[in-house]
Amino acid sequence: MKEKNQKPIWFKEDGIVCAIDQRRLPHEFTVLELKTVDDVIHALKTMVVRGAPLIGLSGAWGVYIAVFSAPVSENREEYIKSECLRVKNARPTAVNLAWAVDMCLEAVLEEKDPASQLRIAKEKALWVDDYESENCRKIGVNGLDIIKKISEAKKGKTVNILTHCNAGWLACIAHGTATAPVYAAFDAGIDVHVWVDETRPLNQGSRLTAWELGKHGVKHTVIADNTGGHLMQHGMVDMVIVGTDRTTRAGDVANKIGTYLKALAAKDNGIPFYVALPSSTFDWTITDGLKDIPIEERNPDEIRYVQGFNDGRIISVLVPPENSPAADYAFDVTPARLVTGFITENGVCGASEKEILSLFPDKKR
Ligand code: MRU
């Protein structure tokens, strides 16, 4: 089991927030202190913290640190606004970042004196933490039914679930999104096994999801990213559950690069493909994912080098020829037509605007 109540980021003392350095897991458990807005931006960009809900919460703590470090002068408000904008722009794809930063900043700017601004900034970040943790718990409850039905149909035989990347508590603050139904099923005594895509280039699957599942005692097997199609053709996958970084109001899903190929293979093999997400990951302003979701392109060195553990330390090694160019697209978009359903805090629905809005009627326009 993981340490009770361990979170990926937390308040330490005035002006200081701590975060697990996810770049070092699973081989080293290191905690970093974030004391400046630059620290927060660096943590976001280098993926000390990552995963959409956690990116949002880190953004909220970024607002708090911006307020903490703001001068008490006539430029204070401008300073806070421009620092928050820098935080908001740290990563482009996960919509939770803008959602959290905008909401926290708006609340801060409603206050006029510095002490109240700081109090509100902290309260808001703690609220995001609680809110997303509770959303993930509900996603677990709502997704459990789907796994239970598959288990019943298989007369209690192992339910094999394939997942891509890490949408566990490390990415989502507590329970996870994609992993929440898995943990709920395991805790309810259902026999579950997870196929964990390694998820190149940064291996969030083999490093983080495998670590999380192992700590919870869930049976799992790490597979190369290209294995899923083969397993599906041979009846070895009962369902796919993934998370998402941004989903349009019509149900197009941006998630870690490679997700689209899993969805295609699932469709071809008649395997249910579910996306688990809190409402903060819907971008209610857009419908066409391919056209409107910005896809992050990262440093090609993430493709060229592979990190691992050797002789008691973490090392990085070059794989392709020294001079071969590489390209690092971090996300892809799975069209709604390939998605069986969404598992949200408000329930489970199909992948169309109408069905999504039936769970979130206040988003109708
Ligand atoms: O680049 P990352 O690690 O921040 O991307 C995270 C993902 O894409 C996850 O797969 C995920 O499902 C979204 S976070 C719940």
Description:
By secondary structure, the chain is α/β, with parallel strands linked by helices. The chain has two domains: 9-131, Four Helix Bundle (Hemerythrin (Met), subunit A) (Up-down Bundle); 141-363, 3-Layer(aba) Sandwich (Rossmann fold). It has 13 helices and 16 strands. It has helices at residues 37-46, 52-69, 76-88, 96-109, 114-153, 169-172, 179-187, 204-216, 228-233, 259-268, 289-292, 301-304, 353-359, and strands at residues 9-13, 16-20, 31-34, 159-163, 192-197, 219-223, 239-242, 246-248, 253-256, 273-276, 282-283, 305-310, 313-318, 331-334, 341-344, 347-349. Strands 6-5-4-7-10-15-16 form a seven-stranded mixed sheet, with helices on both faces. Strands 11-8-9-14 form a four-stranded mixed sheet, covered by helices on one side. Strand 8 (246-248) and strand 9 form a beta hairpin. Helix 2 packs antiparallel against helix 3 (76-88). The mean pLDDT is 97. Bound molecules: 5-S-methyl-1-O-phosphono-5-thio-D-ribulose (MRU). Residues 50-52, 165-167, 171-172, 177, 204, 242-245, 255-256, 330 line the site of 5-S-methyl-1-O-phosphono-5-thio-D-ribulose. 5-S-methyl-1-O-phosphono-5-thio-D-ribulose binds at residues 50-52, 165-167, 171-172, 177, 204, 242-245, 255-256, 330.
